[in-house]
Write a structure and sequence with these properties.
- The protein folds into three domains: about 120 residues, Alpha-helical ferredoxin (Fumarate Reductase Iron-sulfur Protein, Chain B, domain 2, Orthogonal Bundle); about 170 residues, FAD/NAD(P)-binding domain; about 150 residues, FAD/NAD(P)-binding domain, CATH 3.50.50.
- It is about 35% helix and about 15% strand.
- It contains 18 helices and 18 strands.
- The strands form five sheets. Strands 5-4-3-6-18 form a five-stranded parallel beta sheet, sandwiched between helices.
- The termini are far apart.
- Bound molecules: flavin-adenine dinucleotide (FAD) and iron/sulfur cluster.
- Flavin-adenine dinucleotide binds next to helix 9, helix 14, helix 17 and helix 18.
- This is Dihydropyrimidine dehydrogenase.
- GO terms for molecular function: iron-sulfur cluster binding; oxidoreductase activity.
- InterPro entries: DPD_II, FAD/NAD-bd_sf, FAD/NAD-binding_dom, Helical_ferredxn, SudA-like.
């Protein structure tokens, strides 16, 4: 009889992992993967597929695992997903495919662990290099992709597989976007990202690093030199609360804090040139994935006490449940319904404390979540010498100055057709966080897939004209 509960994944113990940056979740062995795969009911209506933004044929790859035909399973995965080892680790499956799983709707049963099974196959592929690098060279045309995050990598890989000549221009010296500079090693090892980027390169995609389009190369030149352009530059500019005292020392944005550690290896200072400040008590503001990553990174850097402060309650927390549980296991302390209102500095202008106020929840706001309302007279002081603000990112201002003629909305994001990614400029498409605002890896990849289809139609129409 099939198991009711999902097969647990092996992981490092909390006591061990707070002392290192190695991956926390260790994946399924073949034996565990087979046990889990056999829980799938192979539903003819397969609702799980509708929960996946890139429409992976989930029952088919799970069936292939059950039959131990791993090569077939990998081919099914890679038909629609060029970055499965990444998605198997960081996708919010519990809100997507697994939320639709029929098994999970039966009382007392867990949904099938689709993400873990995806990771099992993808890791097997990376270690054995099973998947073939394919390119049907039937199309001709040159496409420029700006930004090597999940959106850009997906457009590039799909178009290369259709036979287009694709060049990615990336501002940093490494490809992957947030996967490289934002998400920490203990959740997504950088060698996994590198291997999947290499897979994209093996399809024929070229990457030009250290090129900030709109600065080092004018956008006008890119438009002239290519038949079509895809903009996938993400939304990496930090946002701050802007409360009094924000200019004190030792108040980081989560983007800066995480980039210093992930991309610039500040955790290995002085071996690497980038330092990062760490304190005995660190306060992280916000309760999304970025906040969990910052809090858990601070803990690994040696902070004895890490507090997460969030203005709503646990129920409204946007972080993935698994990451929240990992944070709790690692001793992170959560203060719900609390809002910082002022930073307090010492004589050297270093932050030494923050004034906070307690909140209660009112009626739902435009995000659908209950609006937090301050409780008069409930102010209190939290002492800290390092604060990390993780309250969201915004669009980079390079768009306003470096991409003339491109239509942006009032928040500075690109206006693009949600189905095709087409912008107001002919032959220019866009997708990922720079269109939607901060979202997820798989949503950025979904936008990349839709744009690749639209770019293919556009270039074909140019040839017919
Ligand atoms: C810390 C953190 C943790 C997260 N955790 C998760 C998670 O667990 N699960 C999940 O699904 N999502 C997570 N997200 C969100 C997810 O990473 C993003 O939604 C996704 O990366 C967006 O992809 P993108 O391709 O649109 O942009 P990005 O990943 O931001 O990539 C954009 C790329 O464009 C480059 N670029 C920018 N400007 C230029 C320019 N002018 N010229 C050339 N290149 C340029 C950047 O250097 C970058 O490489 C997290 C985000 C953060 C910050
Ligand atoms: S809904 Fe769940 S049980 Fe049904 S096919 Fe999809 S993964 Fe299998």
């Amino acid at each position: 009889m099939a198991l009711k509960k999902r097969v647990p994944m092996l992981e490092q113990s909390p006591e061990e992992r707070i002392k290192n940056f190695s991956e926390v979740a260790l994946g399924y062995t073949e034996e565990l993967a087979l046990l889990e795969a056999n829980r799938c009911l192979q539903c003819p209506t397969h609702p799980c597929i509708s929960g996946c933004p890139v429409e992976i044929n989930i029952p088919a790859f799970i069936k292939a695992i059950c039959e131990k035909d791993y090569k077939k399973g990998i081919e099914i995965l890679k038909d629609t997903n060029n970055l499965p080892a990444i998605c198997g680790r960081v996708c919010p499956q519990e809100k997507q495919c697994e939320a639709q799983c029929v098994l999970g709707k039966v009382k007392g049963n867990d949904s099938v662990a689709i993400g873990r099974l995806e990771r099992f196959l993808a890791d097997l592929d990376l270690s054995l290099e099973i998947s073939k690098h394919r390119s049907d060279t039937e199309n001709t045309g040159k496409v420029a992709v700006i930004g090597a995050g999940p959106a850009g990598l997906t457009v590039a890989a799909d178009l290369a597989r259709m036979g287009y000549e694709v060049t990615i221009f990336e501002a940093f010296h490494r490809a992957g976007g947030v996967l490289i500079y934002g998400i920490p090693e203990f959740r997504l090892p950088k060698d996994i990202v590198e291997k999947e980027v290499n897979y994209v390169i093996s399809l024929g995609v070229k990457i030009e690093y250290n090129q900030v389009i709109g600065r080092t190369i004018p956008f006008r030149k890119i438009r002239q030199d290519f038949d079509a352009v895809f903009i996938g530059i993400g939304a990496g500019a930090p946002r701050f609360m802007g409360i009094p005292g924000s200019n004190l020392n030792n108040i980081y944005s989560a983007s800066e804090f995480l980039t210093r550690v992930n991309l610039l290896k500040a955790n290995e200072f002085p071996k690497y040139d980038t330092p990062v400040r760490i304190a005995n008590r660190v306060v992280v503001i916000g309760a999304g994935n970025v906040s969990m990553d910052a809090a858990r990174t601070a803990r690994r850097l040696g902070a004895e006490e890490v507090l997460v402060i969030y203005r709503r309650s646990e129920a409204e927390m946007p972080a993935r449940l698994e990451e929240y549980h990992h944070a709790l296991q690692e001793g992170i302390i959560f203060h719900w319904l609390t809002q910082p209102v002022e930073y307090i500095g010492d004589i050297n202008n270093n932050v030494k404390a923050m004034k906070c106020i307690k909140m209660k929840l009112g009626v739902p706001d435009e995000s659908g979540r209950r609006r937090p309302i301050p409780i008069d007279g409930s102010e209190f002081i939290v002492e800290t010498s390092l604060v990390i603000e993780a309250i969201g990112q915004k669009a980079n201002s390079v768009l306003r100055t470096g991409f003339p003629g491109l239509k942006l909305n009032k928040w500075g994001y690109i206006e693009a057709d949600p189905e095709t990614g087409a912008t107001n400029l002919e032959g220019v498409f866009a997708g990922g966080d720079i269109v939607t605002g901060a979202a997820t890896v798989i949503e950025a990849m979904g936008a990349g897939k839709r744009a690749a289809r639209a770019i293919d139609s556009y270039i074909r129409s140019l040839k017919r004209a």
